[in-house]
Amino acid sequence: MAKKRPQTKAKPRSAGAGDREIPVVGAREPCPCGSGRRYKACHGREASHAATELVQRPFEGLPGEADWVALRELVPAATVELTLKGGLPEGVPSVTLATVLPMAWPALRRDDGSVLLGVQNDTSSGDLSRDLADTLQRALEVAPGTPVQGRRVPVDGPRLQDLIGADSAFEPVVHPGFEFWVQDAANATADVAASLERANEAAIPTVKLTGVDAAYWCETPDKNHLRWVMPYGEDELLDALARLHAAGTSSLGADTRLVGSFRAHGLTVPVWDLPTGVTAEDVEKPAAAFAERLTAALAVDTPLTPEERRARGGLTNRQITLS
């Protein structure tokens, strides 16, 4: 049998290492603290743990948290103008959040200096807010006409909550396609036009309801759906939905049905099936009426009845976790 390699204790970190900032370097590079060990076996171990620890509600505290979740997980083509704390830097006329950017770029600084930040991108850590904030900061600093690539994010970097005004408006604009990628879509090159056409063909038609918050109608070949991101605690919301479901008041009208929910970034997203002919406009009034019923159900604090518990179990069994 092969001999076991003797266990060795890690060398103590050099004096003063805990008192100064240790920059992030490659995993196999010498640790900047001067210990003589590779970064991944020294300060990188702590950084790696911090970077992979999942933040359950990365958008909590931001204006429009539920819409942030929708744009990250549900909506194909949408933009939002962002308001930064302290205003925009010189030479940056605007900062716009976008669902997705061409070539899956995390961000792009356009030729005119404006910034597009993509929210539907792979991230390097367990804190989506910190990843997006790092990308945004770098986009504000690169030369105009430059895309921003992904990278491993410093664990002590700012989060979106540090960069975006807490009292600012967050008003998504849902687009039928991705023409917002280019500033002059009508005069785009053949390659760009072809790329836009492919992206537009793949996009699911989506409309944001105007009468309630963070509810999005979408059209699919077999049926339509309403997906509604709700900013309530999961247990509280499921109890309320179960009460309505057991009472036969969880639908949005004839031939519509509450079929389950998604769980995404710490929030719950109930989903209704709608007949093909039901449009976003058709569901506006039923959704507003449902919001009133839900508010009343959320205020009830008595234990669930046996029928309501069975309804809750059915909803729970049909819940899918997106993130």
Give a nutshell description of this structure.
By secondary structure, the protein is of the alpha+beta class.
Let me know the number of strands. 12
The fraction of residues assigned to DSSP E strands is 15-25%
Indicate the radius of gyration in whole angstroms: 24 Å
Q: What distance separates the N and C termini?
A: 44 Å
Major beta sheet summary: 6 strands, mixed
Please give a structural write-up.
The chain has 323 residues and is of the alpha+beta class. Helix content is 29%, strand content 16%. Strands 5-3-4-2-1-6 form a 6-stranded mixed β-sheet, with helices on one face. Strands 7-8-9-11-10-12 form a 6-stranded mixed β-sheet. A hairpin with a 2-residue loop joins strand 10 and strand 11. The longest helix is centred in the C-terminal third of the chain and has 19 residues, at 280-298. It starts with 42 loop residues before the first helix and ends with a strand. 35% of the residues are buried.
Indicate the topology:
Blueprint: H1 43-52, H2 65-73, E1 78-81, E2 95-98, E3 107-109, E4 115-118, H3 128-141, E5 146-148, H4 160-163, E6 173-174, H5 190-202, E7 206-208, E8 215-219, E9 224-228, H6 234-246, E10 257-264, E11 267-274, H7 280-298, H8 306-317, E12 319-321
Parallel strand pairs: 2-4, 10-12
Antiparallel strand pairs: 1-2, 1-6, 3-4, 3-5, 7-8, 8-9, 9-11, 10-11
